[in-house]
Amino acid sequence: MDKLFTSLLSARRVFLLSFFLCSFSPAFAQKNIPRIYYENFSVPVVKANTAISKTINFKSNPEASAFRTKITEAYQQKGNVFAGHFKVAVFGCGGSCIMGYAIDMLTGNLYDLPLGEEGSCLFAEDRALYKANSNLFVSGVCKENPERKTLFYLAFLFQQDNKHPDKWTFKKVQSKEFLARK
């Protein structure tokens, strides 16, 4: 009985110590990121059950075929909707690298998300932020170095091409456009 009591007491101490260390560790500290006003770029959301009738058109973006499994899994998941009728597939590509695609639920076409060189930073506080009812895509909330408190944003608007309605492009947007309510 004494051994059981002693082992339970030790397990409790280990749990409490782990909880204490994790709670006050910088890795688990809550990030102080200002509110992003996605509603400044609001779009209507298509109901997912009516939208997902198209199969993914890998011919629309041949490079995406290398990630067929990841993209197909993301397309079938509930949620992860962006810009009204796009599913988002984001996945790791080694180290802190991430990449991804937006999949049009109405056409099945695939679009590269701006997560490569133009959409990444070395000291990211957060990455790949989006909402179903907005065409604002924040690739990164960044710092110039870990000690700085000042943040900068790598953000893009996902817009339909005026000349080609079946094509969509990402256009860079300044943080003043989404850090204040319009």
What labels would you give this structure?
about 180 residues; alpha+beta; 2 domains; four-stranded antiparallel beta sheet; 8 strands; about 20% helix; globular
Strand content: 25-35%
Order of helices and strands: HHHEEEEEEEE
Distance between the termini: 67 Å
What oligomeric arrangement do these chains adopt?
single chain
Structure in words:
By secondary structure, the chain is α+β, with helices and mostly antiparallel strands. It has 2 domains: 1-29; 31-177, no CATH class. The protein has 3 helices and 8 strands. The strands form 2 sheets. The protein has a 4-stranded antiparallel sheet with strand order 1-2-3-4, covered by helices on one side. Strands 5-6-7-8 form a 4-stranded antiparallel sheet, with no helix packed on it. A hairpin with an 8-residue loop joins strand 6 (136-143) and strand 7 (152-160). The protein is globular. The termini are far apart.
